[in-house]
């Protein structure tokens, strides 16, 4: 999935990104004029030792790695020891709103089912409290948490739905094209997919909570896909392919 948002979009609190075209993004390519602003949100410094890393990157004692098709591989670091975004320049240095240097791990539940009234395929989405964007009800991995636990917990907290993901299909695992990404901090997510039959769908008691302003079943159409947060549009397209390759959904 080609990243675009993390070079062209930002959170409201971010300074404007230094303009970077896709052709200028790779760290190997010389770009002497590249002079992006440095930004780490105040709340990141306030939560040092809690969900955020120390301000001094040298005090971090884990290896900086990224998930690829070949498994986890080390990422490059700059002259100050700061990890470099594997997708290249983003137009902002520092960590922005992200707590961890390097990758920030998240999990996303992708729950589909068919609308019993219209017969259309739908996906369970939330309206995010921060940006108002339509999104999968995902969130950050807590220390020591298995990904299936993160996905089930985030789904429960944000939508009220209680599902088990221990045997769910991993639809995607890797970097997310998130508007919070910077040169030195980025989101990496694992997406677990579950398709519900009519009885399982009818048994859910939906109620928006935590970071979600609203929760709903949304028809999977271009209008929805074009408005989704981060890489979520791509994830729903992967789920569609998956469903088309298996039995037609019911
Ligand atoms: C996205 O941000 C991930 O795919 C996940 O849905 C989400 C995690 O961030 P928060 O919802 O916790 O802000 O990149």
Task: Give a brief description.
The protein is an alpha+beta fold and 250 residues long. It contains six helices and eleven strands.
Written description of the protein model:
The structure is a single chain. 18% of the residues lie in helices and 26% in strands. It is an alpha+beta fold and 250 residues long. The protein starts with a helix and ends in a 5-residue tail after the last helix. The chain binds 5-O-phosphono-beta-D-ribofuranose. 5-O-phosphono-beta-D-ribofuranose binds next to β5, β8 and β10.
Question: Which secondary structure elements does this structure contain, and how are they paired or packed?
Answer:
Elements: H1 5-8, E1 38-40, H2 42-46, E2 65-68, E3 71-74, E4 93-96, E5 102-114, E6 121-128, E7 134-135, E8 139-140, H3 147-159, E9 169-175, E10 185-195, H4 198-202, E11 212-219, H5 222-226, H6 232-245
Parallel strand pairs: 1-4, 5-10
Antiparallel strand pairs: 2-3, 5-6, 5-8, 6-7, 6-11, 9-10
This protein binds 5-O-phosphono-beta-D-ribofuranose (RP5).
List its traits.
globular, seven-stranded mixed beta sheet, binds 5-O-phosphono-beta-D-ribofuranose, 6 helices, single chain, alpha+beta, 250 residues
């Amino acid at each position: 999935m080609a990243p675009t948002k993390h070079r062209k979009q930002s959170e409201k609190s971010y300074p404007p990104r230094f303009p970077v075209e896709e052709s200028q993004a790779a760290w190997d390519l010389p770009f002497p004029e590249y002079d992006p602003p440095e930004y780490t949100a105040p709340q990141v410094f306030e939560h040092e030792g809690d969900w955020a890393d120390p301000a001094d990157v040298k005090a971090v004692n884990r290896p900086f790695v990224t998930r690829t098709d070949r498994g986890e591989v080390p990422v490059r670091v700059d002259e100050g020891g700061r990890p470099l975004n594997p997708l290249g320049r983003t137009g902002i240095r520092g960590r922005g709103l992200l707590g961890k240097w390097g990758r920030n791990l998240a999990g996303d539940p992708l729950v589909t089912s068919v609308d019993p009234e219209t017969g259309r395929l739908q996906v369970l989405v939330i309206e995010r409290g921060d940006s108002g964007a339509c999104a999968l009800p995902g969130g950050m991995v807590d220390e020591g948490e298995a990904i299936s636990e993160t996905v089930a917990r985030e789904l429960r907290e944000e939508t009220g739905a209680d599902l088990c993901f221990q045997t769910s299909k991993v639809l995607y695992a890797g970097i997310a094209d998130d508007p919070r990404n910077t040169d030195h901090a980025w989101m990496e997510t694992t997406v677990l997919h579950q398709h519900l039959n009519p009885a399982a769908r009818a048994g859910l008691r939906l109620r928006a909570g935590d970071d979600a302003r609203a929760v709903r079943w949304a028809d999977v159409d271009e209008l929805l896909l074009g408005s989704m947060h981060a890489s979520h549009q791509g994830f729903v397209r992967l789920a569609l392919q998956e469903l088309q390759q298996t039995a037609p959904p019911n």
